[in-house]
Design brief:
Blueprint lengths: L24 E2 L11 H11 L11 H11 L6 E4 L1 H13 L5 E6 L4 H8 L3 E6 L8 H6 L5 E7 L11 H10 L5 E5 L12 H5 L5 E6 L12 E4 L2 H10 L7 H12 L1 H24 L11 E4 L5 H10 L2 E2 L1 E3 L3 E5 L3 H11 L2 H6 L6
Parallel strand pairs: 1-10, 3-4, 3-5, 5-6, 6-7
Antiparallel strand pairs: 2-8, 7-8, 9-12, 11-12
The protein binds pyridoxal-5'-phosphate.
């Protein structure tokens, strides 16, 4: 058959979402376990009543609310169809064919995809032995073709977060003509105190990405935002898919900001559960990275696929990543207990290569 699409698309893997099954416990996609608060659900319903009208393409009301809550000028904020949409737009505003995008690997699966789709060249830099970003190696990977660097902290899927000093040293060493995107999708779970927006205030090449999908519980609604110098925000608007942040998404996000304290309160429960799960796994003999996100990472390497399948067979869907490891989202206590029951079983310990007494 005659080819009608770009030949290079063959080398781009399709995005693989976490598995889902109505009967299983789903700890595979880093979602919030709780549905929207009543006020948020009402805002969604109200917005649905005017679904015949196009949304405000500038998200003006949402951006004003974000501006107040973050203490950032409205000119420094852009919204996107999830922060994945903003990742794609960042490649579009920085890269032409053959320009290079650096990111740690393993990290968020969208980075290689949005890079290749834009015709840019991915430059993945292996994580350290501790499963964190190797910032020195990332600096060493910069060439005169580098246009964009993604830094995911806390890192999906390993959970590791960068310290303020190492991050500042890195940002100060990156040439000013290269954009650095600090992807803080899990910011609300990070208890290290590092805040990318503070670091971006004085650095015009630094963009912070955040999302309503995780701690705010709107993964199904699709809305995220970027905070950056107005020059970057203006460029993002040029490549933005018109109307891609729906009126329902804008209304839901505004309602979440109003209920911010109540929603952020939920993260304390998740953080306590995360530490409980990690401690239990360590006690069972697992190697578990230090995590600042709403998930834990087990670097099981070539045992990952079999381990993920066995967990699914035991009724708990987790996320295996090729020959790197498995990521387990922190859910409600009973869900985490179900995973721990599997993880500490003789069969699972054997699959993980942990000697049993
Ligand atoms: C979940 C996630 C996002 C957010 O995606 P949305 O498009 O906002 O749902 C962005 N970056 C990372 C690293 C993530 O894990």
């Amino acid at each position: 058959m005659t080819r009608v699409t770009r030949a290079d698309l063959d080398s781009i893997p399709a995005y693989v979402p976490g598995r889902s099954s109505p009967r299983a416990i789903k700890l595979a996609s880093n979602e919030s376990t709780q549905g929207p608060l009543p006020g948020v659900a009402q805002a969604i319903a109200d917005a649905a009543a005017t679904a015949n009208r196009y949304p405000d393409n500038t998200s003006a009301t949402l951006i004003r609310a974000l501006s107040e809550s973050l203490d950032v000028p409205t000119e420094s904020i852009a919204t996107g169809c999830g922060s994945v949409g903003l990742c794609q737009e960042l490649v579009q505003i920085t890269c032409k064919d053959g320009d290079e995008v650096i990111y740690a690997w393993r990290s968020f699966e969208a980075y290689p995809v949005v890079t290749k789709v834009a015709g840019a060249t991915p430059v993945p830099v292996p994580l350290t032995a501790e499963q964190g970003h190797d910032l020195d190696a990332m600096l060493a990977a910069i060439t005169d073709r580098t246009r964009l660097i993604f830094v995911c902290t806390p890192n999906n899927p390993t959970g590791t977060a960068l310290g303020r000093e190492e991050l500042e040293r890195f940002l100060d060493a990156v040439p000013a003509n290269i954009v650095v995107a600090l992807d803080e999708a899990y910011f609300e779970y990070n208890r290290s105190g590092v805040d990318g927006i503070e670091l971006a205030r004085t650095r015009p090449n630094v963009v912070v990405l955040r999302t309503f999908s995780k701690a705010y519980g709107l993964a199904g609604i699709r809305v995220g935002y970027a905070v950056a110098d107005p020059a970057i925000i203006t460029a993002l608007a040029k490549v933005h898919t018109t109307f891609s942040v729906s009126s329902v998404a804008q209304a839901a996000a505004i309602a979440c900001l109003r209920a911010r304290d109540e929603l952020l309160q939920r993260t304390h429960v998740v953080v306590a559960e995360r530490d409980r799960v990690r401690d239990a796994l360590l006690a069972a003999g697992y190697d578990v990275s230090v995590t600042e996100a709403n998930f834990v990472w087990l670097p099981l390497r070539d045992r990952s696929a079999a381990y993920g399948q066995a967990s699914a067979d035991a009724g708990v869907l987790i996320r295996p990543y090729a020959t790197d490891g498995v990521r387990v989202t922190i859910g409600d206590a009973h869900e985490n207990d179900a995973f721990l029951a599997f993880a500490t079983s003789a069969a699972a310990l054997q699959l993980a290569g942990i000697p049993t007494p």
